Amino acid sequence: MKYPPATRVDHEKFCLTEQWTRRKTSTGKTGTQHHNYELGLPDGRVLLTRISHPINREDYGVALWNHILRGQLEVTNEDFWNCVKSKILPDRGFAQKDVANAIPSDVVNILVNKFHVAEQEVRRITAIEAVTLMSNLFAEEISKRTDNSGQ
Q1: Residues 42, 79 within the same domain
Q2: SS3 state at 88
Q3: pTM of the predicted model as reported, rounded to 2 decimal places
Q4: Worst-scoring range by mean pLDDT, 17-31, 63-77, 98-112, 116-130?
Q5: Edge-to-edge strand ranges of the sheet holding 46-52
Q6: Strand ranges for 30-127 from DSSP E
Q7: Within this chain, do residues 14 and 82 fall inside the same structural domain, yes or no?
Q8: Longest alpha-carbon distance in the chain
Q9: Alpha carbons 46 and 21: distance in angstroms, whole number
Q10: Are the beta carbons of 128 and 101 closer than 8 angstroms?
Q11: Per residue in 119-143, pLDDT tens?
Q12: Boundary of a domain, candidates 92, 119, 137
């Protein structure tokens, strides 16, 4: 399928639709030369992309656009345009709804390593249940310390 030439507006719309995070400089400001975005992937890698100012409807050249697709966005032309035009997110190796409901890794770590909850049990509960369980276990631990200090 033939796709139209991509523009900086399309590039930014893709980043915003897929919920990339706007990066700030070391001084905490957003850049004035470029808009820099990053996206964390399930495998731990972080994708980075840069959109030059001004963000306008000027077309990218074919070679530059192919570099951006492969090297920065890591998507096909089809995935890019599906995201920009139809808001269909590219497959990044995980279901988007699962990420929203995932138990934070720190909570899993505390439950499994500190409180010795079986990992299989943690996998069966929701994020809210995991946080509640962790809070209850911490409360029990504090209560035991308080009871023991009074003896």
Answers
A1: yes
A2: coil
A3: 0.59
A4: 17-31
A5: 21-22, 34-40, 46-52
A6: 34-40, 46-52
A7: yes
A8: 79
A9: 11
A10: no
A11: 889 989 988 999 999 999 999 999 9
A12: 92
